[in-house]
Request: fold
Amino acid sequence: MSELKETLQGWIERNSLFLKVFLVTLVSVILVAAAISYSTIRLSTTYFLDSFSLTNSRITSEVKHRFENFTTAVVTAVREVENSGTIKRVLSMEEMDSLLMAGAYFDVATEVERIYSHIQPENANLMVAGVGSQLYNMNYSYWPITHEALLDLEITETLSAEPDKIHYKIINRDNNAPLVVAGKALTERLGDAIYGFVYIPIREQELKRFYQGYTTAENSVLLLDQSGQVISSSNERWLGEAQPALLAEINQGLSGETGNASVTFERNNYIYIAEYIPGFNMYLVNVIDQQAISDHVINTDTLFWIILAIIGLSSGMSWLITRRITRSLTRLVRQISKLNRHNFSKRLKEEGGYESREIARAFNYTLDELDHYVKVVVDSQKRQRDAELRALQHQINPHFLYNTLATVKFMVAKGEGERAIDTIHALISLLQSSLTDVGETVPVKQELEHMKYYVRINQARYGDRIKVNYFVAPDCYDYRLPKLVLQPFIENAFFHGFNEKKTGFIQILIHQENEQLICEVIDDGDGMTITKEHFPYVVKQKRQMFSGIGMRNVHERIQLLYGDPYGVSVESEKGAGTKVTVTLPLVKAIREEETEE
Reply:
């Protein structure tokens, strides 16, 4: 199992470029297919809904016109009942004998029958009831209800509370079709006394005739009163229910005016078109189920399989093409990764497709140019290093020369001619050594002689208050080191190490350690606190900070000759002296190298 896992991981690592390109292509195809499908569905649905809504707006206007004709008939019938003196007179009579009652009933029945002719074409009924026991029902079978039961209805309470308005209410009856009842209280003209009620009931099925031919499963019509109750609807499950969300949306969006918008109720999204019917004081609402419309406009199952087929075909083509392109690139990467460091002579195989061949050809050309450029740079750096070494040497020689001549001048002025001659002799020996080839190295033994010349010059100037001791391991005499490499540190010890202390010692130690030549200049002078202000050049690890033109140049000279592992480090403590360590490679004397050859 582990071998299979490692094999799989290795294959993924080797073909990471192919997998990345293929996955990017696959994801892009899926996203494009999804975006196109979404846009297609959205645009198609939106276009269809807009067209559907435009058609339904016209249908809604037509249905509204039918409802307005019915409300006009209702209003006309109610007004004639209110204006009928016969009906008012009979309903206002408290008591009458049987003969008068029969005549009055005949008169009212005749009057009501005349008024009933206005609403009879709408298949509605007309009922007039007094506050006493009078009830005139033009079609008792239409709504068989007693006077007492009629006055106990909720609509009668509403009519009594607001006698100046026509109210509509849905009445649900057991085992019978619901009725939509329009009613109004009959009041005295000069007062608010109610002497009767007029009712115009119509079966809810009769109201549906106004819009039944314009509805479908996705397109429903409902009649909504001001309380949010559904008075009539082509959708049976909404009949008699309250829809406050829909009413609130209509009141907020339309403010009693015609328009269309979207609303969510019963967890479905609908587009609705609302028309306010003043006579009814209700809203005629046409709602369109967006999801049902979308399902009918686009077959999602077919679309899904088409998208899946497109993705599969695109993925297969992408796999083949991407694999062919990246396989040759992968081979190129393997060849490049196997190239040795700094090996610009090994060329790549120019194989594979056109792109791979061109890349290999360009890479090989770059290798050739780079190899040539590296040779030029190496030669240039070598010449530059020699020039820098000469410049560094010239910086050291004048620095030492000025101090020495100042000392000789002082001796001559004091009349110490022999000491001056001895000092000049020492100076000539040092200059003879320093003015020769800058890249020359000398044996440790010869460098000791030069240092002794330098010490003699300084002791001639300062006297013997600063003693110098030499401790050199015998096996180090024949190793070679750059000329005058220790001179600047002895100079600094003389000039800067004993400003507060007047006497002291300078120890010069040379020995081998860890295949390196270690040269140390140690004094017990004033010492110093090593800070960035005093030592602006920070040397990491064992190579500490150092200052002074001579010391800095020695460090740079050593690193130019031998590289970063070698150089100068300084350790010092205030009042405890200073220790300068020069680290050099072990270089054998020329005579030994010639003997070995």
Observations:
- The mean pLDDT is 78.
- The CA atoms of residues 374 and 380 lie 10 Å apart.
- The two ends are 60 Å apart (CA to CA).
- The longest helix spans residues 16-83.
